[in-house]
Amino acid sequence: MSTAKERAEKEMQQLIAKTRKSIVNELDSCIDWIDDEKKKAKKLLEQIEKIQRQWPGIDAKLFNDSRDCCDDLRQWIKRLDEHRKSVLNNDDRLVVNTLDELGRANEGFQRSRKILFYK
User: What is the pTM of this model?
Assistant: First the structure.
């Protein structure tokens, strides 16, 4: 039968492996995907930090790996936040550009837009 410390170390190894799989290089432009990935990353970070706090006597190499993993997760979360902000800014610009194009193509729309948006 394994000890509680061994179980904690095994769980830590599984969390580290899961973290390495979850961090990807290519980011999707879907806001829901970004939000889901951020939730998963935060949950993994919390789980790893919890084991670090509860089991300070775990193997030093494993502890160092978990600390590096936490740093990677924090960077991943920051990258997701920046990407989300970028996607939203691009969407806002796209809407404005589309409205401008519609205004140039359709005089009636241009008048309506001035009435609606410039009061």
Answer: 0.73
> What percent of the chain stands above pLDDT 90?
50
> What are 55's two structure tokens?
């089991």
> Which residues, including other chains, have CB under 8 Å from residue 44's CB and lie 6 or more apart?
15, 18, 19, 22, 73
Tokens of 47: 């789980």
Looking up tokens 């806002």, which residue turns up?
A: 92
Burial class of residue 3, CB neighbours in 10 A (0-12, 13-18, 19+)? exposed
Burial annotation 61-97 (CB, 10 A radius, 16+ → b, else e):
ebbebbeebbebbeebbebbeebbeebeeeeeeeeee
